[in-house]
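Message: I would value a second opinion on how I read folds in token form. Give me a protein, with the fold worked out from its sequence. Write it directly below this note and I will take it from there.
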Amino acid sequence: MAINTKEAIYQTIINEFSKTIEFFDISPSEARLFSMLYLEGSPMTLDEMSETLGKSKTSVSTGIRTLLDSNLVRRVWKKGVRKDLYATNNDLYRKFMQAYINKWMEHTINQNNTLIDIEKNIRHTNISVEEKELLNKLSTIIAFHTSIEEAFSKINPKQN
């Protein structure tokens, strides 16, 4: 009976923690993978994760790769184990905030560059009064993106 109770608690925590992880633009499947790996508390192989989650090894491998790219999990080495082991990074706040900030910064910079290119193209043509109004609004939108970029660059996730 205790095993069922422990398993129910384990699954409930995974489900609820996954919802929080999804706020950081992590897919539901990857959020469950991260939550499970975090709760396990020790490094796991892809096979172990696949068995625990009841998912294919390919699906788990894809999810782990995404989490590795976001620096939310790390590959670890353990003497005598030939398969790759993975563990979560322990500093949840800093890692998630940094990943989130990086994603926002990248998106904002890309959008701002695209808008600046549009502005340059418009400025090189003869434009009407109405188009000048649009150009002024575009300048305001570019300034907005620049402000977002500046705000995110000032956030320091190391301060918890």
Notes: The longest helix spans residues 92-123.
